[in-house]
Amino acid sequence: MIEALRGLGYSTSTALADIIDNSIAAGADDVQLLFVWDGAASHVRILDNGSGMDGDGLERAMRLGGRSPLEERDPGDLGRFGLGLKTASFSQARRLSVASRHNGATHVLRWDLDQLGNDAEGGGWFMLEGCEPGSEGLLAPLEELEHGTLVLWENPDRIVTAGFTDQSLRDLLDVVEAHLGMVFHRYLEGPRPRLRISINGVRVAPWDPFLTGHGATWSSPRARLGAGRQVLVQAHVLPHQDRLDPRDYRAAAGPDGWTSQQGFYVYRNERLLVAGGWLGLGSPRPWTRDESCRLARIRIDLPNNLDGDWKIDVRKSTARPPANLRRQLTQLADETRDRARRVFAHRGRAQRSPNGPPITEAWRVERLKSGVHYRIDEAHPAIAAVLESAGQLSPDIRAMLKVIEQTVPVQRIWLDTAEARETPRTGFAGEPPATVGKTLKTIYRGLVRRRGFSHERAVEKLLNTEPFNDFPELVNALIEDADT
Q1: pTM, two decimal places
Q2: CATH annotation of 2-203
Q3: How many angstroms separate the CA atoms of 118 and 125, rounded?
Q4: Rounded average pLDDT over 325-351
């Protein structure tokens, strides 16, 4: 059975997060992880300064299923099944030793899967006292603390595999650091964080999935759902790449990248359980992680008495919303995805001027039974000015516009967007101001001279017209004689 439990699906990162849950439950504010790669003597050590356990408490903690998941737990308890310490450890190593210091006394127990296999043949499961002979020095750091617990993984056969090198270790530490910074970010944040985690002496930095400190992040009001209003939800749409500096853009992508990190973030007692994905919601079919929705992230906070309702698994990595919340969560997600698509499509540019009319766009969308069609809007000032002055050429110009409408390279744009994971550049992006200004003056002259607009009305019109709404300084700099 133990060998079967090793296949529950833990990664090194998720297994360590499970161990740290116990440290938090024990009141620790400092957790130190040490990875030592030394061939057959490789080991991993997790040391915390929590309250520690006496002998009886340690024995209960080391017993498989030592506590029923049906028991009522402390509201701050991050556990549930009474398996995490053991299954997480067994998933990575064949020998688990736990030393705990409490009231001046240190107690040590261990499980050894190789020894357990031999014992089982004789009809017994025997937990061993003390650490493996020769490993006493690995537990020495605990003696420097007044209280705390040290978890030791030896013979980490699922970590140190064939071909494992120094670079493999460095790569693994990067993955673990990113995961722990995400899962425990709410504990690690702030000038006086509640928790410090270090890996081989390097402190883990928090990763905020919602960029809440950025002015361009949109956040909905917080709302409570369900019976007793126990579930707290808040939707966020992150800024477009154009609104972020390169460093913030790379950091906000998260451990798995922008597309994978979209969706719901489910927390229990501020510990992240699910990082992205749409929880099987969607209409008429479950949503997938679409490139156009990658800026959408929704936070859900659960108390730990809803584990059963949400089908939280042993690894604390999956969740399924109960039937009574699915409609409300689907509606919230649908609205958030729609907002995220608009931000993505328009590169974060405002589609409405502050306290003013909607922005006049050059393209409009027609949704017909035959499908979606994109049409050039003849009311756009630049197009309207040409058509009004075209005279006999007006039919030819309209025919040209129709050809452009019917030959928009939709598939090519879609492929380029999917492959580059970014929308193509439009709206004079990257163009020098002189190029924008030249085009702007031409449109301005058409409004004033051919269409009879006053200078003030022409400027107001341009401030609310795509793409010149992105260049208010150039528009406001226009003078009545645009030839100068």
Answers
A1: 0.77
A2: 3.30.565.10
A3: 9
A4: 86
